[in-house]
Structure formats: C-alpha cells, structure tokens
Amino acid sequence: MAERLTVIIAVKNHEDLIGDCIASCREVADEILIADSGSSDGTLAAARRMCEGWCACTVVARNYLTACSFKNWAIPQAAHPWVLILDVDERLTDRLLEEIQRLLSGRPACDGYRVCRHNYFLGRRVRFAEWARDRVIRLFRRDQFRYADEEADHGEFPTAGLKIGRLRGPLNHFARRSYDEQLEKCNRYTALQARRWFEEGRRPRLMQLLLRPPARFLRSYLAYGGFLDGKVGIQIAYLAAYYAFLKQARLWELWQAKAAEQEERPAGERRAA
Q1: End-to-end CA separation in angstroms for the chain
Q2: How far apart are the C-alpha atoms of 34 and 114, rounded to whole Å?
Q3: What does the pLDDT read at residue 111?
Q4: How high is the pLDDT of residue 45?
Q5: 24/110 Cα distance (integer angstroms)
C-alpha cells in the first residue's frame, strides 16, 4: 500500500509564487497544508484553486516568529504520516517528483531523506559559489522530526537514532529574485543572530569587525570557487562579506544601546543595577 504524503508550504502574501510551487508538487501530494502567517492578498485563494481536482488543501494560521518554530508548529498538523516541507520559492523538478512517487509507492527504507537544492540568484543558477548547492532533509516521517532550535531561521533536524537516505533528484530554489528581497532577508537574519549573541553575553570585537568580512569574501570567491560563476560569483562573495559585517555591526549597536540606556539612568539606579 502506498504511503500518503502531506506537503507543507509556509506562506505570507505570496500570491505570485504559490501557484508554481503547488503545481510542482501536487501530483505527489495527498494533502497540501498551507501554513499562513497573515496573508492579506490572494495567496490562500490561489492555493485552493491550484489544489482543486488534485489533492486536499488545508489552511492553518498563526503569527510567524522564526522559520523553525513556525514549521515545528505546522508539522504535527499534517494529516498523513509522511511530510514534505517546501519553501514557497522552491520547485520540485520532474526527476525529484518521480523519485518521491516511486519511493512512497512502496515501503521507504529510511526515516527521512535529504535532497540537493539547486540555488538561483537573480534568475541565474549558482554553480560554484557557496550558495551553489546544499543538502537538506525535506521528506520525512511526520512523528519523528522536529527542528531542535526554535529560535533559528535556518535549522537542522536532529538525526541521532534515525536512518537518513538521499534523493538524487534536485530541488530548485529561487530564493533571491531581487536585491530588495536579498537585503530584506539579510536584515532579518542578521538582526536575529545579533540579538541571540547579545542575549548570550557575547561582546563585539574590533578584530571580528575588521577581519570577518574580508575572510568571508575570500572564502566565497576563492575557496568555494565563486570566481567560476563570473558576475554572479563576485556579487555573492560581496553579499557574504556584507552579511558577516552586518552581524558584527548589529551586535555592536545592541551593546551601544544598552550602554546609552545605563548612562541615562540616575546614578543611584546604576549602582543598584
């Protein structure tokens, strides 16, 4: 008997993306679970329309805090024992779709499966730079996987005691379609990381601020072979350096704000603190 599958897609105002995402996976899905965090456009209507005649469409809603906490909340709401998590800017390739269909038509030997993502930058496939490819667990048994760090936007599933396989078909990831989108993500991710460091008591260091950005540039452009990606590779290297700089700068900003707040307090309160 074939295993049944729920595909989970997290959305918020993604009317322009949801149709292609669902079209790429609906042939293998028994249920599309739309995890919504407050869409006010036509995203949900488009999702229901794309599922009609193919599979069930379920919508659940909650405020978004981080990607990992949001997905951990959505996973147990899947109706079926196997789950495939997709970001709304990801697309199953035909090869991956057929591979999942074959796998679920029998008895899968593993608890979860890694897939290789092919990442795209401004519509161009990244082939050598550090964003070129990554392997992520996306297909798994519903009751055995949760992200360990709910405060993270990019987390990993703990896999101790679980059998993990690998799918050969690639998953296309169109994550960075414009610089506006790239910089918005950069601002969000660096603010989150700096806040975590601050709460852990980590202090900014001049040498980190000075050396981290060029080190990230060199790693991306030379060590990862970004120079082989031409103009795309050098842009990714500069963005990696900027990301490294902004994390350190935001950490410095948080400590400066705390110091300024303490200076504004009366002397007696400062001594008591």
Answers
A1: 65
A2: 22
A3: 98
A4: 97
A5: 24
Residue 171 half-sphere exposure, CB side, CA atoms within 13 Å? 25
Query: Which is nearest to 36 in space by CA: 83, 71, 5?
Result: 71
Whether the pLDDT of residue 272 is over 60: the answer is no
pLDDT per residue as tens digits for the range 63-120: 998 889 999 999 999 999 999 999 999 999 999 999 999 999 999 999 999 999 999 9
Residue keyed to tokens 């994550």? 175
In single-letter form, the type of residue at position 188 comes to R
How many residues are recorded in the chain? 273
Task: Report pTM.
Answer: 0.87
Q: Which pLDDT band holds residue 269 (cuts at 50, 70, 90)?
A: low
Could you give all domains of the chain from N- to C-terminal order, each with its CATH number?
5-175 (3.90.550.10), 179-272 (no CATH)
The pLDDT of residue 33: 98
| Cα gap 183→176, rounded to integer Å | 9
How far apart CA 76 and CA 242 sit, in angstroms, is 37
Tell me the pLDDT band of 207, cut-offs 50, 70 and 90.
Answer: very high
**Residues paired with 119 in a beta bridge:** 173
- Report DSSP letters for the chain, one per residue: -PPPEEEEEEESS-HHHHHHHHHHHTTT-SEEEEEES---SSHHHHHHHHHTTTSEEEEEE---S-HHHHHHHHGGG-SSSEEEEEETTEEE-HHHHHHHHHHHTS--SSSEEEEEEEEEETTEEP-SSTTSEEEEEEEEEGGG---S-TT-SS-----TT--EEEEEEEEEEEEESSHHHHHHHHHHHHHHHHHHHHHTTPPP-HHHHHHHHHHHHHIIIIIT-GGGGHHHHHHHHHHHHHHHHHHHHHHHHHHHHHHHHHHHS-HHHHHH-
pLDDT on residue 191: 93
